[in-house]
Amino acid sequence: MQTSSKARLVIDKSFVIAEVDRRIYGSFVEHLGRAVYGGIYEPGHPQADSNGFRKDVQALIRELRVPIIRYPGGNFVSGYNWEDGVGPVEERPKRLELAWRTVEPNEVGTNEFARWAHSVGAEVMMAVNLGTRGVDAARNLLEYCNHPGGSYWSDLRKAHGYDAPHKIKTWCLGNEMDGPWQIGQKTPAEYGRLAYETGKAMRLVDPDIELVSCGSSSSTMPTFPEWEAVTLEHTYDVADYISLHQYYGNRDNDSANFLARTMDLEHFLHTVISTCDYVKAKKRSNKTMHLSFDEWNVWYHSNDADTRIEPWTVGPPQLEDIYNFEDALLVGGMLITFLKHADRVKIACLAQLVNVIAPIMTESGGSAWRQTIFYPYLHASLYGQGVSLKPIIDSPKYDAQDYTDVPYLDSAVVYNEAEEQLTVFALNRHLEEGLELECDVRGFEGYTVIEHIVLAHSDLKAVNSASNEQVKPHSGGDAVVRDGYVYARLSKASWNVIRLGKAKS
User: Is 190 a catalytic residue?
Assistant: First the structure.
């Protein structure tokens, strides 16, 4: 029998943070491991469509309602010649792919991916190569993708069988250019100048695009946050967003500390926001720089296995983390953090979507299945639509190895006025005790509980597989509304989604 502590939330319609941008539930597909070859694309599979893409994988992606997918990288993009991936497939070159030391067959390229993304209901977030290339290749790719016709590159797209432009709106100006592992690594000044000139030329081709300036590869980089301060001096006027990347692991097997990692995520966000606003003030700009958290996840399980990959093969099983239950809890906590910063975080991409540190896994020639992290991502995507409200949280706290005063309760609240629905996302970090939750919703008169979804398991290390889904949610939570308050019991170490709606008269 679990003992319980008490926590309290106050929710009010006037505590508005911002409208939630649907794109914070985005994802990422890189030419890496089995993300493309053996993941979304497997000709000859029983579920393959006429273009070689797996329909069972498409169905799971549609279930998640992924609004935007970043492509083609990632580290891959810094050595990628986009022209290799267009035109007749049989004429495309096979290349040594230096970022991950594999062979890239170029069977899937820009057109195939754009068509596939449309089939799963997602926009494309395209990255351009600012490692080995620059202004010319980027402007030509944009012309190929977006110009309606009557020019060399747009007419070449038509000749390749794609008469209508892809109309890709969001473009990343390179990837992790601060990283020594990156092909064509740049200093902040080198990157800032190149990114500005590239963005300037791209906007001349298509003034309606959005541009993402490349931020630090993680908050632990020695140049963070100087990288942001210096690069934004150059790119602030041309870019709409700056990128953030962050992965967390539990190598020390300290679950309490692991679940507190969102404290680090909060600090990362605050630092980047402060740096953006410093540059805004220095430039006397009226524009607010928004954030694109276009790589985030748990990543550490596969590190040892990846050192034993045979180089120069096609689609080897790289970065195939098998996620456990506590990983799902942290993913839920990271989504809560993004929602609490909805005023600045407008895009976020769970990295990645299939097989490579992913919520969806596939067996070659076999089934596709849901990892543990699939579920908090699904719930946020389905029910986190509307206005993010700031919850006032009163929770008992604990001290972890790296963090102090960590609230056992973490929560985000989204109000969908049009649908007259209120969703409370609640994470209980307590590993031993449940939380008795009291939530003040007196400002939502007539609202009752629609559903209380719970993701819980007695074993923090429990995993899912193709044949055994140990970790999956249920709707058996006990949340109830009485006299303007929601009362609910949150199981120890659990992810909860409490959905309320206005009762029909």
Answer: no
- Please give the Cα distance from 186 to 182 (Å, whole number): 9
Condensed to tens digits (0 to 9), the pLDDT of residues 10-37 reads 999 999 999 999 999 999 999 999 999 9
pTM of the model: 0.97
CA dihedral for 194, 198, 199, 204, sign (positive or negative): positive
CA-CA distances (angstroms) from residue 491 to 62, 304, 479? 30, 34, 12
Distance CA 356, CA 72 (A): 13
Q: Which of 482, 499, 489, 419 is nearest to 456 (CA)?
A: 489
Cβ-in-10-Å burial (0-12, 13-18, 19+) of 440 comes to middle
- Dihedral of the CA atoms 212, 216, 217, 223 (nearest 10)? 160
| Cα–Cα distance for residue pair 143/337, rounded to 1 Å | 37
Determine contact, residues 215/228, Cβ cutoff 8 Å.
yes
**Catalytic residue at 176?**
yes
Strand order in 485-490's β-sheet? 392-394, 4-10, 434-440, 485-490, 480-482
Cα separation, 29 vs 27, in Å, equals 7
Six token digits for residue 441: 């919703």
Angle, nearest 10°, between helix axes 325-340 and 262-283? 30
Q: What is the pLDDT of residue 346?
A: 98
- 201 contact partners, CB below 8 Å, separation of at least 6: 135, 138, 139
Q: In what order do the strands lie in the sheet with 494-502?
A: 16-19, 387-389, 409-416, 421-428, 494-502, 447-455
Please pick, among 83, 176, 228, 320, the residue that the annotation labels catalytic.
176
Q: Among residues of the chain, what percentage have pLDDT more than 90?
A: 98
Kind of pairing, strands 494-502 and 447-455?
antiparallel
In which band, very low, low, confident or very high, does the pLDDT at 504 lie, cut at 50, 70 and 90?
A: confident
Q: Quick one: which H or E segment has residue 345?
A: strand 345-351
Helix 374-383 with 55-64: angle, nearest 10 deg: 50
Q: Helix axis angle, 226-235 relative to 262-283, nearest 10°? A: 40
d(CA 467, CA 369): 9
CA 51 to chain centre: 26
Residue 138 has pLDDT above 60, yes or no: yes
- Which amino acid is located at 73 in the chain? G
Render pLDDT for 395-443 as a digit per residue (tens, 0 to 9): 999 999 999 999 999 999 999 999 999 999 999 999 999 999 999 999 9
Find out whether 449 and 500 touch, Cβ atoms under 8 Å: yes
Exactly one of 30, 83, 295, 320 is catalytic; name it: 295
pLDDT at 505 over 80: no
